[in-house]
């Protein structure tokens, strides 16, 4: 059935948990692209056949016309599916910039198409240039602040860090009571977590 | 469908809003410098409601006593009747009964932080991007800087830690509000970049930096789609915005749903207001009422500031 493979791609995106990404399915993607080109060849040959029979392609309503229409519409559907697939993935990739940061971990990198990696990089750069133009860091303060200080647990050895007027040693599994603004970058990098009793 | 960064979801909207109620601290202990500072980030011209008899002997107690009574929730609990009128669900609210608190509320509503909060809430609830208020944002940023300097001074002069942390909290909240506002707008631009960059009217609502962001975003997205999909499709089917050559207009651009319903609150009496083009649905908009209406029909009122989205 025409268009089935393309809808498979979208089902993959849809069944995936919101905000997550499945690996780029290049097999099916390429198959759909081939299908598109096949549709186009068929479409062209049907049109050519009508022209050879000296029929007006605008007004004639014969078998070949409807055949061509089916190919045209299948191609459109495939195109829409491919675009939706890429676009929805791009939206998730955009959200990674806000949730994870400018560098994607290896396991996400693996799931991306090469063009998507490039897109992520360019998109991060655009956000970065906006932030430097505005002179404000928008990647911190993602949740409304409740208290200026929070208790954190250090997950990895970070070493000596200077915070404002004093420096502290952040060793693995130690607990600290710090200013929320100082901890945010460590938390987003996964080096610390908020300690909730 | 896959949009999930949270900023645009209504869930985070309700959880975020109440935690940033404005706190009017008046640290009027004689030992502190606080009394000289416009701490509540009020516009310089705005006079704060007087906080009588809250001067306490020690600064911390004074701060706390002053802070607590002024913590207020914007919306009084929904009370009274519900009226169904022409398919419009209208929720009536009890108005402020206490004159004193009403006056305080009016004064609080005119501070820049309050204005920013309103802009932020409107932006959060509206399906499309609203006009960027650059004078407001630059005023708020000035005040943030002022507060940061004040905090630095405090650090040097050894002001009580509790006072400092209250100031810090106020600063943090304001900073969050500002960041969240700018972030929300960027995420809206990301979502509707092609739609926005097509229309002069929408582009003019953005700040210059946002316009640049929208432009580079659109270029990048087009390039990405071009090299991953479109370049592999046959001739005639390779446009980003149109399905094929036979489309006469752009039919593949994601647009915001302006038909969606929004919760809104009137600020003043608007009177009989026509919801549709043909005048079949007219609703009487009374001051300080809550309504659930289609965004499209009240768009003009939101833009002119007669109604707030919540």
From TrEMBL, chain A:
<dbReference type="InterPro" id="IPR056783">
    <property type="entry name" value="PSF1_C"/>
</dbReference>
<comment type="similarity">
    <text>Belongs to the GINS1/PSF1 family.</text>
</comment>
<dbReference type="GO" id="GO:1902983">
    <property type="term" value="P:DNA strand elongation involved in mitotic DNA replication"/>
</dbReference>
<feature type="domain" description="GINS subunit">
    <location>
        <begin position="49"/>
        <end position="134"/>
    </location>
</feature>
<dbReference type="InterPro" id="IPR021151">
    <property type="entry name" value="GINS_A"/>
</dbReference>
<dbReference type="Pfam" id="PF05916">
    <property type="entry name" value="Sld5"/>
</dbReference>
<feature type="domain" description="DNA replication complex GINS protein PSF1 C-terminal">
    <location>
        <begin position="146"/>
        <end position="196"/>
    </location>
</feature>
<keyword id="KW-0539">Nucleus</keyword>
<keyword id="KW-0235">DNA replication</keyword>
<dbReference type="GO" id="GO:0000811">
    <property type="term" value="C:GINS complex"/>
</dbReference>
<protein>
    <submittedName>
        <fullName>Os05g0453900 protein</fullName>
    </submittedName>
</protein>
<dbReference type="InterPro" id="IPR005339">
    <property type="entry name" value="GINS_Psf1"/>
</dbReference>
<dbReference type="InterPro" id="IPR036224">
    <property type="entry name" value="GINS_bundle-like_dom_sf"/>
</dbReference>
<dbReference type="Pfam" id="PF24997">
    <property type="entry name" value="PSF1_C"/>
</dbReference>
TrEMBL record, chain B:
<feature type="compositionally biased region" description="Low complexity">
    <location>
        <begin position="1"/>
        <end position="19"/>
    </location>
</feature>
<dbReference type="GO" id="GO:0000811">
    <property type="term" value="C:GINS complex"/>
</dbReference>
<feature type="domain" description="GINS subunit">
    <location>
        <begin position="162"/>
        <end position="227"/>
    </location>
</feature>
<feature type="compositionally biased region" description="Polar residues">
    <location>
        <begin position="25"/>
        <end position="40"/>
    </location>
</feature>
<dbReference type="InterPro" id="IPR021151">
    <property type="entry name" value="GINS_A"/>
</dbReference>
<feature type="region of interest" description="Disordered">
    <location>
        <begin position="1"/>
        <end position="62"/>
    </location>
</feature>
<dbReference type="Pfam" id="PF05916">
    <property type="entry name" value="Sld5"/>
</dbReference>
<dbReference type="InterPro" id="IPR036224">
    <property type="entry name" value="GINS_bundle-like_dom_sf"/>
</dbReference>
<dbReference type="GO" id="GO:0006261">
    <property type="term" value="P:DNA-templated DNA replication"/>
</dbReference>
<dbReference type="Pfam" id="PF16922">
    <property type="entry name" value="SLD5_C"/>
</dbReference>
<dbReference type="InterPro" id="IPR031633">
    <property type="entry name" value="SLD5_C"/>
</dbReference>
<feature type="compositionally biased region" description="Pro residues">
    <location>
        <begin position="47"/>
        <end position="60"/>
    </location>
</feature>
<dbReference type="GO" id="GO:0000727">
    <property type="term" value="P:double-strand break repair via break-induced replication"/>
</dbReference>
<dbReference type="InterPro" id="IPR008591">
    <property type="entry name" value="GINS_Sld5"/>
</dbReference>
<keyword id="KW-0235">DNA replication</keyword>
<comment type="similarity">
    <text>Belongs to the GINS4/SLD5 family.</text>
</comment>
<feature type="domain" description="DNA replication complex GINS protein SLD5 C-terminal">
    <location>
        <begin position="256"/>
        <end position="310"/>
    </location>
</feature>
<keyword id="KW-0539">Nucleus</keyword>
<protein>
    <recommendedName>
        <fullName>DNA replication complex GINS protein SLD5</fullName>
    </recommendedName>
</protein>
<dbReference type="InterPro" id="IPR038749">
    <property type="entry name" value="Sld5_GINS_A"/>
</dbReference>
